[in-house]
Amino acid sequence: MAGAVLLCAPAISFATPPTPTSGPASTLSPAKNDSSKTHPHHKTVQERLVEAEKALALAGNEKIARQLADQAESLRSRSLTGAVRMLLSDSQDALGKHDFQNAEDDLTSAITIQPDQSILRRYRAAVRLAAGDNNGAISDLGVVIQADAGDATAWGMLADAERERHEPDAALRAYKQMMQLDPHAPDADKQLKILQTEKDGQED
User: Which residue, of 47, 71, 135, 169, has the greatest Cβ tally within 10 A?
Assistant: First the structure.
């Protein structure tokens, strides 16, 4: 399920964003009949992320959906600093050695440096899930979803964590939300049937 995706930090371009027009020149009104002199609005990373998430929910096929999902993931990681990226790399190395404590500690340090970057908490939630700390993962994922409700991966991981806690109803609700955000998620229908069966079985 979605929780299998742990610390995927895509390569990001560090191009300097355009500087908005300011100062005395910005007070000059362009001629009404010369729209070519107006400066187009440069969308923020957050605005572009919201657009990518909306497009993902409406994607026509799996190929387009995966491209949009990758685009959204890249935007989520765009503002991470060099120091934080080094900590992510160290965490990934520790995770590869099943050293869950050091992997989590590196991510906690990264969160301390950039507490406003919710994706870092999602990465830590992935480590906590791998270590069997489902409650800790759910705590992190709650913060992620509060900051970025369109993060389909976070919802999928929440479904994983709730399932591990033997809470099939909560797991099913989270997974259905993930499917609304990413209808073409790999094996989504299969996983939905499994969760539905588990929920129905508990009700008997």
Answer: 71
Q: What is the pTM of this model?
A: 0.79
Judged on CB neighbours under 10 Å (0-12, 13-18, 19+), 70 is middle
pLDDT tens per residue, range 122-175? 999 999 999 999 999 999 999 999 999 999 999 999 999 999 999 999 999 999
Give the C-alpha separation, 65 to 181, whole Å: 10
Phi, psi of 88 (to 5 degrees): -60, -40
What are the helix (H) ranges across the chain?
A: 45-57, 62-77, 82-96, 100-113, 118-130, 134-147, 152-164, 168-181, 188-203
Q: How do residues 44-88 score in pLDDT, each as one tens digit?
A: 999 999 999 999 999 999 999 999 999 999 999 999 999 999 999
Q: How confident is the model at residue 109 (pLDDT cuts 50, 70, 90)?
A: very high
Alpha carbon distance 203, 111 (integer Å): 40
| Residue 150 token pair | 């369109």
Instruction: Decide: 75 and 43 in contact? Cβ < 8 Å.
Output: no
| The pair of three-digit structure tokens given for residue 160, joined into one six-digit string | 């994983």
- Counting other chains too, the contacts that 10-18 makes at CB distance below 8 Å and 24 or more residues apart are 10/70, 10/73, 10/74, 10/77, 12/74, 12/77, 12/78, 12/80, 17/42, 18/42
Instruction: Reduce the DSSP state of residue 80 to 3 states and report it.
Output: coil
Which amino acid is residue 139, in one-letter code? S
